[in-house]
């Protein structure tokens, strides 16, 4: 399956692939601050600022496909590394919010 391979990548994956995973039920986490999230975010996204990850990850399903995004992809990468280090099976760096918004499928808009 392609998901384990994608989850090993530290750089962001293609936005179209991210949207396919979202359509298949992947969890979407916005790791930016609450203020950044309030300004703009994907409608499917849950806001979990990176500084709250240590507490948050202890209550989560580690087997669920999880996509992380942020402003530029750096915090999403950091979040992916933290989740992987804590036993999460499939976490994917979805990169920057702007890139995801540019590639949003017509039916999701």
Automatic annotation (TrEMBL):
Residues 22-109 form the Rhodanese domain. It comes from the Bacteria. SUPFAM superfamilies: Rhodanese/Cell cycle control phosphatase. InterPro entries: Rhodanese-like_dom, Rhodanese-like_dom_sf, Thiosulfate_ST/Rhodanese-like. PROSITE patterns: RHODANESE_3. This is Rhodanese-like domain-containing protein. It comes from Shewanella electrica.
